[in-house]
Specification:
The chain has a domain of 28 residues. The model has no long low-confidence stretch (mean pLDDT 83). The chain is built from four helices and no strands. By secondary structure, the protein is mainly alpha-helical.
Length: 102
Amino acid sequence: MAVTRLERKGRKNKSRAKARVATIKRLNTTPVVKNVDIEAIKAEFAAKIKSAAQEKALVKEASPKEEKAQKIEKVEAVVKEEKATKEAEVEEPTTKKEEKED
């Protein structure tokens, strides 16, 4: 009697086994440990915290009246710039047709 092989089933079994081994290897790998200076990182965070605290202190020192005055000055500066641009547009020379109509 001749023996028949189930070739497709054999390929499936082999591919499943390879996939299982690959996932086990992937899950067992450990990341590369880098040389990290922990003290430098801590110092960096401390510096950021100090600068944030100083900014908050400066904001608290300014009174609400001073803040309003600063905002008003900014708005007035913007309005002056807009007026200057409008005046520049108005001062354009008139054309000959417009002079004849007047």
